[in-house]
Amino acid sequence: METQDKIKASKVFKAVFEHTFDAVFLTDLSGNYVQSNQAACSLLGFSHDELMGLHAKNLMVMDEETSFQHYWEEFLRQGKMEGVIAMVQKDGKRRMVKFKAFAGYFPKNNLFIVSDITREVKQQEALKEIAKVQSHQVRAPLCRLMGLVQLITYHDMPEEEWSSCLDHLERTAKELDSIIRNIVEKSNCEEPKGGGGFPQ
Known about the structure:
By secondary structure, the protein is α+β, with helices and mostly antiparallel strands. The protein has helices at residues 2-19, 38-44, 48-51, 56-59, 68-78, 118-154, 159-186; strands spanning 23-28, 33-36, 60-61, 80-88, 94-106, 109-116.
């Protein structure tokens, strides 16, 4: 009965392994990749055979202060770990991922389940940049526009000064329009900078 349960569990895992949208990696206890699903290959741009020739430290971007070996030993000691990290694709670009890792999930093998969150990270970075722009760059031309409007509304102005005032309004409006266009472009989100440590 126990053998049948193991066989059934093995079939279930294989089905999940092959069809899940998450990237799944298996490493040996030293960190060498020994198995991966198609989602993992698609995420990083490697073929299955190429991935099998790599070590986890080749694809995980570590911070400069702590070595991969330190994090790896801590992972094996704790038995599990989760967090956010940058992983390196075959073309050298970085993908930001959220991972859950289980040491010794199988005899002599560690299990890593990885979700690509690059788009979410890019959106967060863009929103932070937009907030920065709005709080500094937008405020200056907006204040000038409000001042000019008040000047026109509440003060009698000689006719010869109207032309100068309108010129100021036009230049300020164009400046504000340029800033808004820049905000829109930034919101399209370019590739994230990546980096960061193993656990979070």
